[in-house]
Amino acid sequence: MEMFDLIAVMAKILFVIAISLGVIPFLVWFERRGSAWMQGRVGPNRIGPFGLLQTTADVIKFVCKEDFVPKNANKFFYHMAPTVALVAPLCAMAVIPFGSYLVLGDHTVNLQIANMNTGVIFILAFAGLEVYPIILAGWASNNKYSVLGALRGSAQIVSYEIAMGLALLSMLVVYGSFNPHEMVAWQNETIFGFLPRWGAFVNPIGALVFWIAIFAETNRLPFDLPEGESEIVAGYHLEYGGMKFAAFFMAEYVAMIMASGLISTIYFGGYGFLPGMQTILNLATEYFSLGVAGVQNVKALLEFTSFFSKVSFFMFVFVWVRWTLPRFRFDQLMDLGWKILFPLSLINLILVTLGVYFLN
Amino acid sequence: MGTVNISRKYTATQKTYLWAIFIGMKITFKRLLQGFFLRKNNTIQYPEERRDYSQRFRGMHFISVDKNKTENCTACYLCQTVCPAECIHIIADERDEDNNPDGVKKEKRPLSFDIDALRCCFCGFCEEACPKDAIKLSRNYELAVTTRDDAIYDLDFLKRDVKGRG
Amino acid sequence: MSNTTEIEIKMPKVDLNYSSFKKPVQVSADPAAKPNPKVTIDGKVYDFAPGDTIMQVAERYKIHEEIPRYCYHPGMPIAGSCRMCTVEVEKAPKLMTSCSTPAADGMVVHTRSEKVVKSRTGVMEFLLTNHPLDCPVCDKAGECELQDYNFEYGPMTSNFKEEKRVYEDSTTKKLSDKVTLNMNRCVHCERCVRFTDDVTKTSDLVMLNRGYKKELAAADEERGLFNDYQGCLTDFCPVGALTYNDFRFEKRVWFLEKKASICDRCSKGCNIEVHSEKDVVYRYMPIFNEQVNQHWMCDEGRSSYQSLSNPLRIISPLMKYQDALHSTSIETLLGSISKELQSASSVELVVGTDATCEEAAYLKEKMPEVIKNIRLSYYNGTNNVTTSKDDQKLDNLLRMKDKTANTKGVEETGLTALKNGEVSSEIAILFRSGRAGIPKMKADQKLILWGVWTQEEIKALPSKNILGVIAGLSTIEKIGSFKNTDGILQKFAPAIVHRGNGLSVKSVVSAWKSLK
Lengths: 360, 166, 516
What we know:
The complex is a heterotrimer of chains A (360), B (166) and C (516).
Chain A: H1 3-38, H2 54-64, H3 75-92, E1 101-104, E2 107-110, H4 119-129, H5 131-140, H6 144-175, H7 180-187, E3 190-191, E4 195-196, H8 199-202, H9 204-217, H10 229-232, H11 242-267, H12 277-288, H13 292-322, H14 330-359
Antiparallel strand pairs in A: 1-2, 3-4
Helix pairs in contact in A: 1-11, 2-11, 3-4, 3-5, 3-11, 5-6, 6-9, 6-14, 9-11, 9-14, 11-13, 12-13
Chain B: H1 12-16, H2 18-38, E1 61-63, H3 78-82, E2 88-94, E3 108-116, H4 125-129, E4 135-137, E5 152-153, H5 155-158
Antiparallel strand pairs in B: 1-4, 2-3, 3-5
Chain C: E1 38-41, E2 44-47, H1 54-61, E3 86-89, E4 96-97, E5 108-110, H2 114-129, H3 145-153, E6 173-174, E7 179-181, H4 191-199, E8 205-208, E9 215-218, H5 230-236, E10 242-244, E11 257-262, E12 271-277, E13 280-286, H6 299-302, E14 318-321, E15 324-327, H7 330-343, E16 347-352, H8 357-370, E17 374-379, H9 407-412, E18 427-432, E19 446-451, H10 455-459, E20 466-471, E21 480-483, E22 489-492, H11 505-514
Parallel strand pairs in C: 1-5, 16-17, 16-18, 18-19, 19-20
Antiparallel strand pairs in C: 1-2, 3-4, 3-5, 6-7, 7-10, 8-9, 11-12, 12-13, 14-15, 14-20, 21-22
Helix pairs in contact in C: 2-3, 8-11
């Protein structure tokens, strides 16, 4: 591997981590302010302009808090759980492309940390890892509420992973590839001349199932069953305080970002241009009279903007849904997962497979 | 225990719940826009803004004083008698003749007058029973204290200057 | 705590009423005898004894509870000055004062007719013209006859618009160290003046001036009040003009719980009402007993409640350990003193004459079973009284020379008086209820104290060799009976619950017995 590639990969890793972790404070801020606006309140407005520094204050509080470990906890797994929780979704982000490629002199830089042919499998693998921190945390805390929360959480995630996997599978049938770049490229066409050929338009049921499933996967409302103040206190992270709790807290948001990136890539055209961006590119090319490399770089920038806005939209939807829908009861949750989403995604897979078989 | 089964007819649209979810999302989005652009909210920014309670609001107690800063209380024990929470504790004493410009009306005084605000239920009976209009409930609702001892109001504290309803 | 049920005595029902005429008229069984005269009051016919006034007949039959009165008091001569007790007598031209009108055979009386009520309303309005509205300050409030009758008969409004009369000098005037006068409140019933004239016969209160300026004053300004029954003045004063300093501003009367008991301050055995709240005694008040104390009680007895709540009173068993007395449990104490008693050559138990009859009899019967060869005797030791024969009156009313309550009763159990008033055994057990004197003893006399003691009394003992103190109950905390100086046996029940670890005699003796 050349020195340049190494540096490029390091830079991409840094960029992705910085973006995903750097977005979290704003996301948390928006979660609070946005919920306040939706509910006719004001929300945190004391610290910093518009209360933006509230998260900073929280971080200071988390850092200054006592590093508490319960007496009878399993120390190793207890400390491992928040680490895994934070690392797994961050790793999954490695294969999500946030642009096509940059041209820097003689080199091209693929805007994806690792370009794998098994990209989607990799994502699924790491998304599947998300069940482990919950079980580890719940079991290692040696607290009955934690264990109950962990059991609920793991049951929920495993159940919805099936529906999610099947919905994803239906799209793989459409794309005929595991490679995210190829998926984006496939979606970069139009149907009937005006509608982008996004996965969501080609396979709406799959998109819906997938969307619902990622809510459950990230433990967001209306599927935040692993927690529950009235029943099991804080659930699996009941015994965690200070930065260890903060790690769980951040992990939730990283998982949201990862899930948003995933759904954008697979169902909503990924880094493909949003309508109108091509015009901007053409105008920029004419105005600055760019060369081939320049055009590609501006294109990559616009692609990143497109991807970022899509991800932002889905994150907004995460917050929006959270403050709209009430949470499920556990039996309703299982009903929805096993009796509705699972058969629906299975039927959808068959239909899509038949459709692809006959249309091609 | 009998079970009551209530059955309703749902249409196909209702059964999917998606339309209902969409309506809910619409409402919250509308609220979001209102909150963001119009700053529409019902919050009272507490330490700066205060809710204006009714004139009849019953808050922290005080004892009214006359022009000589002598309490109007004559330790008649009527408030202690009527108090349903038994939170008033009075010890009576003879008032010093020299410090008694109002003569016979005030021959008795409270040596100590303690109100245990932790027990008090703010019913206002003491205020009603008081023949001298001495004990009253102010409109002050900020009763938070840092120690339990502070919640026992003694005579000096009760004789403080109270503005507004006095 | 409570040792109330251990000695079973059937309690006499004590009626808390100042009325002195509760006994029904004796109807002769002989049909030939002349029938009792009859009077009709409020439509009902009542027998009465010749010479009764209408008030006395009404008192006896409790007609409408009572006829309102200010100047009338059953224990004092009739004045007929307040006009509150007026009743309508048919065929009489105007209203008659029931306190001074003798009942006659065939008389028809209405005590609550419209005319009578109107008259009483008028009287109340006149009384209230000058009465200050200082009930919140007044100690009488709650047991004030002016309040009660005003509530019943008084006008709702007053026509009096002028300045109220104020006695500048007698607003809060100390008539003595026991009684405070507030002349503004006085309704001039003169009960107090008649009391000093006719009951105590000291004449130390007089009414000065007349009419609007009529004022109560001590006959001798410098000496003030000097009779020994000043508390009674404050009891029967219908308003708060005379208040008892000891009780002044201590408690509002409606908080007080009232239980009957017997005063143990002298051998008279006055019937009292113990006023307490939450088992803290605030005052004693006399209750009527025709044979014993009439309506009165002396100030000495009245203030004797103070020794109960004396903070120096010993209310927990004390045991000698390293030359000092320490609080302990009764079992430990008895175990420790039992050893001493077994090795002692001679033991004697001196029962104070303030013990109840039951206690004295119980000790006499059971103590020889607990300690062999114990000698028992009783000791009085107050005012040089040895036996009940030494007892004599100190004045013409109630006060007695013997300052213990039950000398006669203890004598009747068969105990003998302590020889020469001096203990002589190696170990002496002194049993007393806080009133009896302390016998003479050697300076190194071994002592066991039992009953009601205070630290002051223990310090004042000639001997410092105290093996232990068994805390007991005082008179109003226990059940029992006293035989007073006139030979009248009076029973009493606990008026308050003992607040401490004191035990009744029976509990101590049974604990002592079970030790072995």
